[in-house]
């Protein structure tokens, strides 16, 4: 076999790869390294598998020696060959990780011996037989290592992780007001008005569409609880499912009352469809469940959330509430919301978004303060805190809305309009009539459904996410904006929450978790442990060596044990068993969820955990002693 060719496993196929004569991948310590390096002709791709793919200049030394010289440079962290599959010029790069499945019956000690033999570093232990390992400076090329391991007696399969450029078929919408939707992607200006915005002060929605390769799933339903839905509006009409009106107690949604128009623009920001006219929501493929008739009543509160979950709502968007301290939520109302967040979506939980309110006060709408909801504040087209947006420790994230330049949204046919700020314009801030069916809109009323639509994109990417995981992802992937001093040591701001929502990063994280990424702990616990701080309550009991549970893995660092135990306790409400063992002179912690007399109960839990995005395997508890 030519030294330039190698055969490796990819999924169910074997790939015949040929080494590129011109392209290599570089991870450098310095910015613009490739622009200054004389041996590099140009950058072909800025990021592929974490590498910058560059084209080398013609040189008598050839690609191998040129790459070796680059690797020797102090500014280069890693250098890699680029490969092509037979019949294609698409670049392929090994990321450096290898997915290894050992034969049944091999134990951890034997597996570690194999990893040591190939100078590999354990990255993650998925289950008893599956590990992810990465190459080290002492390893050979990951493709060669994987190919060699395929012949090793203990190894069932070894698949190197590869990255290739994926094809995006998305064509951006041509709806007539699409260019006005700066909150989806901010170009830095208003297309028909002399107004400068801050480029990039947006929710990264269009980038998220491109990452998905579509506009979200048509199987996701967003329930908008509000008043004043124009169900004949061209942006909404063909998307309606299971409408309900609390005041008529029927599917006959009341329309035409000038006092109620709010629901139409709210819904459009979340899910206005692509039809060549009007605007586009952040999740234009999502279905629309209008629930009309907001109410403080306990009975109505229970009914609206129960109706939403009973009729298939994946996400519930609410741009209303109360900041009057005389009307805080009762325990029964809190439970109605908690029940939807816990039991909706067949036990994965409905994702509930609430606007924090527009009263410019230092506490949020009492509904938004509920711990199971995503509390949405507003930022502006200047990437600043919207001055009207309420503040508080309960704010989860912020999202672009007015305060500098408004949002464009649908308007109900009976909407009589209001004076915009101090002007006399009924629908448009600057007096320019852009559409008879739309208007300028804003407030946390607009920020909230924008986030609801982003949650729909996340569930499109990974339908198995729980409501809590969706909230956690939004927190972890938000962009910090505003004054850095606004954020506390846990990365939270009373104005911005954990930052401005980033749809692209949130969707990317949802995809990563679907593809089997590790359980990600709550940000506050993880951050405290990383900082060597935190207070944790322990309840230590001796576990009898009998019964069955579901093991999620083995860990060498005690901090990681704390993170995983807190996560699993919160998620599954079951006892967590930690087994402490010695392996090759090192302490290893094995974590098991549950303790059941019957193996079938442990198997049922394993299935439940799998649906929640947590991989594990059924384990006899007595075997933990081995």
- Major sheet: arrangement of strands: 13-14-12-15-16-17-18
Write down how many β-strands occur, each being a DSSP E stretch of 2 or more residues: 24
Provide the structure class.
alpha/beta
Structural Rg: 27 Å
Give a short synopsis of this structure.
The chain has 626 residues and is an alpha/beta fold. The chain has helices at 33-36, 62-71, 108-117, 142-149, 205-212, 263-271, 298-310, 331-343, 444-461, 467-477, 503-514, 523-530, 558-572, 599-611; strands spanning 5-10, 13-28, 40-48, 51-56, 76-85, 93-102, 120-125, 130-135, 155-163, 189-190, 193-196, 221-226, 244-245, 287-292, 315-318, 351-355, 374-379, 397-400, 407-410, 438-441, 548-555, 576-583, 586-596, 617-620. 24% of the residues lie in helices and 25% in strands.
Protein topology:
Elements: E1 5-10, E2 13-28, H1 33-36, E3 40-48, E4 51-56, H2 62-71, E5 76-85, E6 93-102, H3 108-117, E7 120-125, E8 130-135, H4 142-149, E9 155-163, E10 189-190, E11 193-196, H5 205-212, E12 221-226, E13 244-245, H6 263-271, E14 287-292, H7 298-310, E15 315-318, H8 331-343, E16 351-355, E17 374-379, E18 397-400, E19 407-410, E20 438-441, H9 444-461, H10 467-477, H11 503-514, H12 523-530, E21 548-555, H13 558-572, E22 576-583, E23 586-596, H14 599-611, E24 617-620
Parallel strand pairs: 12-14, 12-15, 13-14, 15-16, 16-17, 17-18
Antiparallel strand pairs: 1-2, 2-4, 2-5, 3-4, 6-8, 6-9, 7-8, 10-11, 19-20, 21-23, 21-24, 22-23
Helix pairs in contact: 5-9, 5-11, 6-9, 7-8, 9-11, 10-11, 12-13
């Amino acid at each position: 076999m030519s030294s330039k060719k190698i055969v490796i496993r990819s999924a169910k196929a074997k790939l015949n790869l040929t080494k590129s004569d011109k392209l290599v991948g570089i991870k450098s310590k310095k910015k613009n390294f490739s622009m200054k390096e004389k041996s590099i002709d140009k950058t072909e791709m800025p990021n592929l598998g974490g590498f910058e793919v560059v084209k080398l200049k013609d040189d008598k030394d050839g690609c191998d020696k040129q790459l070796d010289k680059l690797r020797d440079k102090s500014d280069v962290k890693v250098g890699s060959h680029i490969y092509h599959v037979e019949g294609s010029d698409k670049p392929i790069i090994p990321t450096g990780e290898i997915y290894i499945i050992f034969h049944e019956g091999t134990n951890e000690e034997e597996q570690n011996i194999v990893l040591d033999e190939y100078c590999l570093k354990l990255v993650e232990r998925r289950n008893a037989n599956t590990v992810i390992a990465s190459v080290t400076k002492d390893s050979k090329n990951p493709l060669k290592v994987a190919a060699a391991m395929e012949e090793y007696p203990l190894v069932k399969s070894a698949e190197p992780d590869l990255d290739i450029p994926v094809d995006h078929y998305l064509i951006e919408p041509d709806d007539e007001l699409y260019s006005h939707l700066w909150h989806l992607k901010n170009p830095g200006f208003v297309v028909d008005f002399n107004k400068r915005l801050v480029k990039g002060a947006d929710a990264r929605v269009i980038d998220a569409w491109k990452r998905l390769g579509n506009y979200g799933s048509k199987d996701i339903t967003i329930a908008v609880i509000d008043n004043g839905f124009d169900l004949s509006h061209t942006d909404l009409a063909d998307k309606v499912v299971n409408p309900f009106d609390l005041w008529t107690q029927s599917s006959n949604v009341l329309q035409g009352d000038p006092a109620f128009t709010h629901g139409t623009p709210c819904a459009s920001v979340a899910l206005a469809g692509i039809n060549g006219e009007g605007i586009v929501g952040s999740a234009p493929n999502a279905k629309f469940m209008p629930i009309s008739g907001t109410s403080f009543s306990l009975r109505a509160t229970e009914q609206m959330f129960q109706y939403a979950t009973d009729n298939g709502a994946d996400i519930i968007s609410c741009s209303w509430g109360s900041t009057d301290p005389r009307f805080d939520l009762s325990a029964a109302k809190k439970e109605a919301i908690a029940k939807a967040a816990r039991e909706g979506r067949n036990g994965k939980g409905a994702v509930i978004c609430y606007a924090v309110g527009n009263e410019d006060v230092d506490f949020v709408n009492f509904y938004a303060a509920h711990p199971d909801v995503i509390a949405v504040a507003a930022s502006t087209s200047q990437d600043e805190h919207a001055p009207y947006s309420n503040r508080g420790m309960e704010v989860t994230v912020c999202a672009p809305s007015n305060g500098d330049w408004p949002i464009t949204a649908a308007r109900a046919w009976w909407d009589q309009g209001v004076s915009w700020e101090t002007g006399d314009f009924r629908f448009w801030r600057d007096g320019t009539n852009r559409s008879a069916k739309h208007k300028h809109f804003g407030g946390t009323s607009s920020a909230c459904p924008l986030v609801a639509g982003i949650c729909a994109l996340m569930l499109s990417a990974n339908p198995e996410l729980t409501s809590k995981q969706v909230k956690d992802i939004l927190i972890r992937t938000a962009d910090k904006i505003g004054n850095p001093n606004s954020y506390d040591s846990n990365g939270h701001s009373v104005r911005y929450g954990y930052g401005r929502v980033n749809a692209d990063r949130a969707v990317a994280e949802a995809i990563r978790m679907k593809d089997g990424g590790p359980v990600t702990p709550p940000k506050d616990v993880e951050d405290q442990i990383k900082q060597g701080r935190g207070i944790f309550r322990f309840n230590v009991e001796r576990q009898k060596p009998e019964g069955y549970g579901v093991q999620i893995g083995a860990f060498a660092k005690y901090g990681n044990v704390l993170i995983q135990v807190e996560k699993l306790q919160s998620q599954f409400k079951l006892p967590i068993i930690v087994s402490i063992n010695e392996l090759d002179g090192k302490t290893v912690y094995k974590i098991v969820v549950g303790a059941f007399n019957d193996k079938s109960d442990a198997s049922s839990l394993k299935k439940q955990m799998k649906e929640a995005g947590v991989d594990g395997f059924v384990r006899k508890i007595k075997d933990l002693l081995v």
